[in-house]
User: Fold this.
Amino acid sequence: MPFTAPAAPELPPSRADSAARTGHVPGSRLGRIDAAVHLGFAVLIVASVVRYVMRHSASDNLLVLALAVAACGLYAVIAVLAQRRRPWAVWMFVLVAVWAVLVVSAPSFAWCSFALFFLCRIAFTGVVAYAAAGATAAATAAGLFRLSDGTDLAMLLGPLAVGVLLTLIYDRIEHDAAEQRRLHSEVSLAQRQLAASERRAGTIAERERVSREIHDTVTQGLASSLLLLEAANRAWPEPASRQDLRQASELLRRNLSDTRSLVHELASPGLDASPLPDALLQAASQYVPDARLLVTGEPRAVAAEVRHALLRVVQSATSNIKLHACADTTTITLGFLPDAVTLDIYDDGTGFDPAAVAPPSDAGGYGLRAMRQRVEQLGGAFSVESAPGEGTVVAAQLPAKGEE
Assistant:
């Protein structure tokens, strides 16, 4: 048993079993009870020696005192070995044997059996522990029964009954400790599994976020630039082709800037520096130069994540207008409500059937899904109203989450 105040770390089951067989038991099984066992043994052995000396002659004292000294020496050896984490179970067998002879010869030392009982339960496990503790109780009962000249049955049964009670109590304590360790192990395992699940979920969410950023910046910009370059190639060398080339070059420069911002924490310094209405109009003008912006309500600063989502929705929607709608008019309406911000993007283009949109694939189709995910992840609402030949309205409403 470790006789130091700090508790040693609990060993795995295989090592704990080996430690129990050798007498090296982790301090977590005892806590601070070791000090009480030492103190109790010291007080009881001194009291027993004084009592015996006062009641017996010098010739009767020599053998008993020699046995008492031997028991104290064995106890000290066990304490030192346990403190140094050395096996001490063999020494415990010797101590029990010496103690049995001593307590039968001098029942005055019977009270010290309590300390030996706990040492037996700490040193051994299983049947050996019960046998050693039982031998201690039996020797004590025999000594007390001998003291009564074999007339007092309580002296015989009392130590045995106390030994049984202490055994039941100790077993219950060990069972509860084992159950607590088992529950702690299960909780630790559940926590590790939860942490792993959260890491996987975080990884998936981050992948989706990066895919949306790439779609709304790099992919849309490259698609629009390709469209302009194809138009310029068809019109070359007409003067209109130069305008398409300039616009494509501007889009590519903006796309390069967005890519660099994406690498550096997916930020857009050029857009974040201006008021929200100006930033939205600037984002829309990259794809639809003649887009109009209307503002309703009292403009105010919004949370950074709300601003970012609105900018990306405008970029994605206007890119779709340029690529697919063939619209003559594009109107963006930004509304400031007391507890929300609304965004409506209308075009009078060819329109489409939202229910018939193809699922995302290598050919595209991520725009609407990415916009919806952005808005809904912030607790907002997203909708698309369109029909073939009747134009399209992309609407988003986001809760106002404080100021930037």
